[in-house]
Amino acid sequence: MAFTAIALLTTSCKKKDDPAPGPGNNNTNNNTTGIGEVGFEFTNYVGSNQLAINTDTYVTPANDSFIVTKFNYYISNIHVVKSDGTEYIEPESYHLVQHNLASSKHFHIANVPTGTYTAVSFLIGVDSARNESGAQTGALDPINGMFWTWNTGYIMAKLEGTSPQSMGTGKSFTYHIGGYKGQFTGVRKVTLTFSEPMKLAAGSEGTLAIKADALKWFSPNNISIAANYQVMSADAISHRIADNYANMFTLTNVLVSIP
Fold it and tell me: Which of 1, 32, 178, 228 is 20 to 30 A (C-alpha) from 26?
């Protein structure tokens, strides 16, 4: 199977304040016959360097040095947007990306109608419908360690590590960003616009290569590890971090396979 590069993109995400509804709500799918696929490939970075767990040292804008030991985030409610504004919405759209699990960084959406696509949007986190639906399975299974309680819901994204500036035990820092309702929700919507259209033909597969930059957690809202080494509840600090990580995604490439 040959691959044709459509475009090399450096479009950063655009944040919108209001999360999109969960799958099934306001669904604008106008074709239920699946004849293509769209794949997602996430690569985690810290600034300009690919993330290396437990080894490499990085520096925040506040001049705190740190090592990353864990980096997880939910990608959900994926919408692939056509040039005419209609959308294909992935059913049961919940994916947990875990840096230490390579297979979680690559997934596919099947049954995507052919057409010309110009953007993709998704949530960082888990929508309120699933937070209030009781015990879940798969990516939403509490066994994955991304869940607090039935009252507080899911951890939308998680960054852990060590830093000489931390006052935590063993110089650790822990950022578990959650909350699915109220002013301190950790859910954020991301929209990535293609610089060139992705033309999906029958039997073909489009692939979106996406960079996730963990350094974005620390700015533009200044987050100091020295001042905030443990964030594990939905509050003003976690809200600022969520506003930061809404900007951590960049679309770096779009490919279309030729069957």
Answer: 178
Helix (H, G, I), strand (E, B) or coil at 52: coil
Least confident of 29-43, 89-103, 111-125, 173-187: 29-43
Number of structural domains (the chain) is 1
Residue 2 counted as domain residue:
no
For residue 126, give its domain range: 13-199+211-254
Rg value, the chain, Cα: 18
Let me know the angle formed at the C-alpha of 258 by 252 and 259, rounded to the nearest 5 degrees: 140
Q: What is the pLDDT of residue 151?
A: 76
User: Up-side HSE of residue 66: CA atoms within 13 Å toward CB?
Assistant: 33
d(CA 51, CA 54): 10
Q: Does 230 fall in a domain?
A: yes
**What is the C-alpha separation between 69 and 54, in angstroms, rounded?**
5
Average pLDDT rounded to a whole number, residues 119-125: 98
Q: Which long-range contacts (CB under 8 A, 24 or more apart) does 144-151 make?
A: 144/96, 144/98, 145/72, 146/72, 146/74, 146/96, 148/176, 148/178
pLDDT tens digit string along 152-165? 899 999 999 999 99
Is residue 3 situated within a structural domain?
no
Residue 106 · residue 39 · CB < 8 Å = yes
Distance CA 59, CA 66 (A): 6
pTM of the model: 0.86
pLDDT at 123: 98
Whether 185 has a pLDDT exceeding 70, the answer reads yes
CA 235 to chain centre: 21
